[in-house]
Amino acid sequence: NSVTENMTCTFCGCLCDDITVEVADGRVVKAKKACANGAGIFKEYDPSPAPPLVDGKETGYDEAIAKAAEILNQAKSPMIYGLSSMAVEAQKKAVALADKLGAVIDTTSSVCHGPTGMGMMEVGEATCTLGEIRNRADLLVFWGCNPAASHLRHFARFSMTPKAGLNPNGRKDRTIYTVDVRPTPTAQKSDHFIQVAIGHDYEALTTLRALIAGKKITQKEIAGQPLEVWQELAERMKSCRYGVAFMGMGITMSRGRQHNVSELFSLVTELNKYTRFSVLPMRGHGNVAGADQVMTWQCGYPFAVSFAKGIPQFCPGEFTAVDMLSNKHADAAVILASDPAAHFPVAAAEYLSEIPTITLDCEVSLTAKVSKVYFPTACYGVDAPGTCYRMDNVPIRLRAAMEARRPTDEKVLTSLIEAVKSC
Ligand code: SF4
């Protein structure tokens, strides 16, 4: 039995690295400071040794690798998907496997913040670290995101309430806005809530850009609100000491998608003519920021990449996993630490269960259950060390609370790279 301090919770992009983990009889029994969302990562994981399954039957490791390699060698259009709940050491191997196979590789970014990456490519991103926000920001704008439900310790550790730096009085030193299509728990904790009409975020953001630039607007009502509401927000943004816009899937997955993101990123850049302002995407999966980093280092693009022509090609809408499956373009799949069978649209999920699939996951997910080959792997941050990137792209080293009795994703992917033929 043991106690390990300063463990990291990998459930969400906050990557809280102050968790104290108690292990008894080979399992985590306590994860102090982990929130309700994160505690399950530690306590629900069963680290017992578990053999790979082929067609649901227990199989030796080498035989399972041979079967997986046979599937991938026969495939004409293999696809690799997931990556966001693995350490970067394994993500690197996933890209190397895609390169060797001539496969399509896509991450969970394509169903959450993919448009954020596209917006960033278009206009750049005025970013910062969560440490800067905690110590300096006096205006926070939560736009299309709800960390009160999705990132439970974000307010206390980084944004709303810490008494730190230039904010010695914590919450009292900060003005908080929420902009969303409906009232949320985050809106309840804010000083101001602006309810934007559904599908009109782009219009609201363009209005703010125009107001910041000093343009005259004659329209009385915009995006469901009187012009005065946007005028007041624009003035607040220009006159704050240091502002931050946190943005989420309310912008990236609503009408306008990457255009909404470009507009917000442009607004933030333009605000820097008057004050200091940054934007930070609220990233969901624990290492989805790492997946973007690794993909971009190694392919030049953050998601939706095909190696079929021997060079990385980027095409969201074609090489994104939902499209590869819905259009029946993939004939085999490697699913890494994610559960598309449970979360994808019905047509994509049904097709996934028709093609031979190889899954690596520390949990027996629905995807694992419909897979031809399933490798139960170790859990990064519980029984395997590794590196993950926080939502502000700061790398955090994960500690392990116990010795792994299962192979890591990195090890299984290394074995697969050695076993498959080059395309
Ligand atoms: Fe884990 Fe996120 Fe909760 Fe922190 S806020 S403990 S990283 S789930």
What does this structure look like?
- The protein folds into two domains: 2-112 and 286-419, Rossmann fold; 114-281, Dimethylsulfoxide Reductase, domain 2 (3-Layer(aba) Sandwich), CATH 3.40.228.10.
- It is 36% helix and 21% strand.
- It has 18 helices and 21 strands.
- The protein has helices spanning 36-43, 61-74, 88-101, 114-123, 130-136, 147-150, 154-157, 185-188, 201-212, 227-239, 249-252, 258-271, 288-299, 321-326, 340-343, 346-354, 366-369, 409-419; strands spanning 2-7, 19-24, 27-32, 53-54, 57-58, 78-82, 104-107, 139-143, 175-180, 192-195, 221-222, 225-226, 242-247, 276-281, 305-306, 313-314, 332-336, 357-361, 373-376, 386-389, 395-398.
- The strands form five sheets. It has a nine-stranded mixed β-sheet with strand order 5-4-19-18-17-6-7-15-16.
- The radius of gyration is 22 Å and the shape is globular.
- It starts with a strand and ends with a helix.
- The model has no long low-confidence stretch (mean pLDDT 97).
- The structure holds iron/sulfur cluster.
- Iron/sulfur cluster (SF4) is lined by residues 9, 11-12, 14-16, 34-35, 37-38, 151-153.
- Iron/sulfur cluster binds at residues 9, 11-12, 14-16, 34-35, 37-38, 151-153.
